[in-house]
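Margin note: ligand = adenosine-5'-triphosphate.
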Amino acid sequence: MNAAQLTAPAPDPLLYLDGVSVVFDGFKALNALSLIIDPGELRAIIGPNGAGKTTMMDVITGKTRPTEGVVRFRDHDLTKLDEASIANLGIGRKFQKPTMFDKLTVFENLELALKAPRGPLACLRWVLGGGDRARIEQTLEEVGLASRAHDLAGVLSHGQRQWLEIGMLLMQDPELLLVDEPVAGMTDQETEHTAALLVRIAGRRSVVVVEHDLEFVRALGSKVTVLCEGSMLSEGSIDHVQNDPRVIEVYLGR
Ligand SMILES: Nc1ncnc2c1ncn2[C@@H]1O[C@H](COP(=O)(O)OP(=O)(O)OP(=O)(O)O)[C@@H](O)[C@H]1O
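Resulting structure:
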């Protein structure tokens, strides 16, 4: 490492949470949570049930307003924006249950996802251009569904449906993708494919993954944040957090 690299400033964070609390009827679902996600970073979030993982995602996407704290995406104050405005800034969220049109093909679902932000009128007049077709084909490759492009979404396996939904989110070109328990119910092979997929798509965008499956988290090879009782309990490599006595006590040791 040379002197210039040693003194190089850290990149401006893409997502910045500081002192974020959410109180539901006197109960602190988030308790002074701080979290920084860099551009292009892949981050895994783990923690026991009720730790506040979903509430954290809800705060980032504007579904839940924090009681206090700072939530910034680039230079935007997310606490002042509604869900639609936050999505338009480039934050995509994948929920556990995929939402797609079963009677359309994989390609058509991606095509529709590409049109979605253009509004209904634009959709009616919309003709698939060469550039758009190339983007759909690139996304099919990225999520590993190129060979299924012309199959109906309804006949896909559970894992393939999850990948199609990730592909549909990619069509909106998000800068930050939030992914909620992507491998629940997947076979081991599908789980491996999903880890490789998320590693592949991070870099060009940031990806935050909430997951309980620690073998999958290990396969991501990313920094891991452990939440507990609404706060950050530990952060570091999977080996670091798995050997942290506090994490073993509240999460892993049970
Ligand atoms: N709308 C709400 N009203 C009241 N309490 C809530 C609400 N949403 C969440 N909570 C509580 O806040 C705490 C954090 O919940 P959250 O769903 O964020 O945890 P989690 O880490 O995602 O858990 P899991 O792994 O089980 O999904 C829980 O105790 C939950 O019961």
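The CA atoms of residues 181 and 239 lie 21 Å apart.
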